[in-house]
């Protein structure tokens, strides 16, 4: 039981899909600003950036297939 509790506490909290998308869009925007400023990024930053780009791609693909918005109203 103690091990399970430690695993639960140590597991990173996952944001829901929309919050994760918003966070990734912010990371991508900051990376673009850093690139323009000419600052170098680490391998870990690059891996996180690639993961975020994939999340944004997945969301865009999913939203392009939806015919209603989050409140259920028709998009078209």
Main β-sheet, in a few words? none
Summing up helix and strand content along with how strands pair, one would put the structural category as mainly alpha
Number of helices: 3
| DSSP strand count | 0
Taken from the alpha-carbon principal axes, the silhouette is elongated
Q: Which percent range fits the helix content? A: 55-70%
Q: Cα distance, first to last residue? A: 52 Å
Mean pLDDT across residues? 78
Low confidence ranges: 3-8
Strand composition percent: under 5%
Order of helices and strands: HHH
The Cα radius of gyration reads 17 Å
Explain this structure:
The chain is mostly helical and 76 residues long. The chain has a domain at 16-65. The chain contains 3 helices and no strands. The longest helix has 23 residues, at 43-65. The protein is elongated, with a radius of gyration of 17 Å. The protein starts with a helix and ends in an 11-residue tail after the last helix.
Offer a concise description of the structure.
With 76 residues, this protein is an all-alpha fold.
Please specify the SSE layout and strand pairing.
Layout: H1 2-10, H2 17-37, H3 43-65
Helix pairs in contact: 2-3
């Amino acid at each position: 039981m103690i091990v399970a509790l430690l695993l639960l506490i140590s597991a990173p909290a996952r944001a829901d899909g929309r919050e994760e998308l918003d966070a990734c869009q912010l990371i991508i925007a900051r990376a673009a600003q850093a690139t323009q400023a000419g600052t170098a990024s680490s391998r870990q930053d690059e891996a996180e950036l690639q993961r975020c780009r994939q999340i944004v791609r997945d969301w865009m693909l999913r939203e392009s297939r939806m015919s209603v918005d989050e409140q259920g109203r028709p998009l078209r």
